[in-house]
Amino acid sequence: MAKITVRRIVALSLARASVRFPRARLPFAIDAHPLGVSASQDPASAKADEEKKDWTHAYAEDLQTDIYTEVNADPKATVHSTEWRKIMRGDPVEINPSVGSGLKIMTVDEWTSRWKRNDRFPECLACGGTATKEHHFMQTWCRGKKQFESETLCMDCHMFSWRSYSDPDFMLPEEYDKVRWEKMVRDKAAADGVARA
Question: Residue 20's pLDDT is what?
Fold first, then answer.
């Protein structure tokens, strides 16, 4: 990551100094424009366009594969699964700390009163209703690739709708490093084998 930052700093300083070198003679690589715009596009207008964009649902745009969906009677996400079982049995659950303290027997509506609706995926996968509330959402972006999980509870049929997505070549930083190090070890072993032969 530091390499990219250094490259962009060098590219910026070269652009400000108006020094021109043939690309083949440079001892380093110059990345594209630091704001990710083409040279013909004004950086100020590109930045203004980026600031205007609504990033709320960007995780669900430009999907490369299908979204995995699942309908369950119990939450698939571990968050709230214990409380859900207690509510279904009529046992007391812990009160939200922002409201008070202690335990209370609650209805489903009372327990979910602070949950928000997911406007990107408002429909229930079981009954098709739109009276849903999201209790679990997680998104991860790494090197321009994305993955997300979303689970909503339908207030009409009390079924959970699970949606998840991952770009086909999505890797977490530690997976990226593992691949890089394994390739480095293979290359070194191959070079040592050639040197011994």
Answer: 44
The 10s digit of each residue's pLDDT in 10-21 is: 333 334 444 444
Beta strands in the chain (DSSP E): 68-72, 93-94, 103-104, 132-142, 145-154, 160-166
d(CA 165, CA 146): 8
Angle (nearest 5°) at CA 80 between 77 and 84: 110
pTM > 0.85: no
Q: Whole-angstrom Cα distance, residue 112 to residue 91?
A: 16
Backbone φ and ψ for 171, nearest 5 degrees, come out as -140, 140
Residue 153: both structure tokens together: 């509870």
The DSSP-derived string for 3-54 is HHHHHHHHHHHHHHHT----GGG-SS---S-TTS--TTS-HHHHHHHHHHS-
